[in-house]
Amino acid sequence: LPEEYGISGGLFVDHGSVWDVGNTFDADVLYNDYTARTVVGATIFWTTPIGPLRFNFTEALDAQTEDETKSFDVTISTNF
Q1: Dihedrals φ, ψ of 30, to 5°?
Q2: Could you please report the per-residue DSSP string of 8-74?
Q3: Which of the ends of the chain has fewer CB neighbours closer than 10 A, N or C?
Q4: Is pLDDT at 26 greater than 70 in this prediction?
Q5: Is the pLDDT of residue 19 over 80?
Q6: Which one is predicted more confidently, 56 or 20?
Q7: What three-state secondary structure class fits 6?
Q8: Residue 79's pLDDT band (boundaries 50, 70, 90)?
């Protein structure tokens, strides 16, 4: 796309695990085995007059039954 549109993109892979999350919920049930999760995705960055927007499209490769997955996310940020 032409640069004046302010749109760019990228691909990403997130891989990691969560543990020792405190007493906010029954963490032993969810994270007792330190199982790593992997997500792949594509992102679109768009510079707009209201601020930079980021659109993420993701797919969980190895979600567990107790995981709450998302396939789309929008982020609005600002610079100052």
Answers
A1: -85, -40
A2: EEEEEEEEE-----TTSS-HHHHHSS---EEEEEEEEEEEETTEEEEEEEEEESS--TT----SEEE
A3: C
A4: no
A5: no
A6: 56
A7: coil
A8: low
Give the total residue count for the chain: 80
Backbone torsions φ then ψ of 5, nearest 5 degrees: -75, -20
Phi, psi values for residue 34, rounded to 5°: 55, 30
Q: Domain residue spans in the chain? A: 3-76
52: CB partners within 8 A, 6+ apart: 45, 46, 76, 77, 78, 79
Report pLDDT digits (tens) over 38-58: 999 999 999 998 889 999 999
